[in-house]
């Protein structure tokens, strides 16, 4: 395999582009594609996009018309530390978290908008329905019968380390330009993921600085770059990031706004796989090797293979949680786990 050098970070292959002129066409794309794709101009007719094209101030004024009188959470970086929201040398966050009214946060952004050395200001994953009245109705994508969580992301120039999410994601650039660098799920070993419990935003992130990768410390990142792809998006463009794909996200302009939609194809009552991983680390990882090997076989038998032999010898009415799960049987598992964990 040919060696990659640092310059290859700027020569990644582009994310494929697709066209979706109707809700039905977008629905078909989302159902049929397991790879990322970009739709240019998908939300170019949003009033928010139009306001942002005029100026960052007009975009902020537009958003303020819809905001609720609530406290918004924002991350504030360190002055002179650049736009990367990450860890510091002590593996603590290099930003602090504040809660304030949206007009005050926007005033803070406006005050530093033209200062390249000013601290980053970032409002991440704000629930559109909980914090705004009417914004969704005026600016949204029709995703059919999907049950979506709609979030808005607002701030100055930022760089967010590569991470993944469990739900599927349609991310729509409303104000400013954004760059997405994507890695397939199977590249997680080559991304050098950090802690899973001490994270900037709830998901383990790559410890590699994409702008200045240290190949001596992270040699396998060269392989990740061979599989990476990049998308530079303008206001009005959208990108579909399939579940579990890693994405490094950059807000490139003095003021940036993204609206995204998360959904999962399986019912929410099935729970979060990350919770199972955390519990397995606590209960299984440090067992003796022979015991751990047995539990690996049990997981393969009951969870990953889950063949007919698991239940063929059990009367159908007595299979309990070994039968296909329902909201009721999932609730029984959840209640059982809560009782066990509280002992």
Automatic annotation (TrEMBL):
This is Cupin-like domain-containing protein. InterPro entries: Cupin_8, JmjC_dom. It comes from the Bacteria. Transmembrane segments: none annotated. PROSITE patterns: JMJC. Residues 115-278 form the JmjC domain.
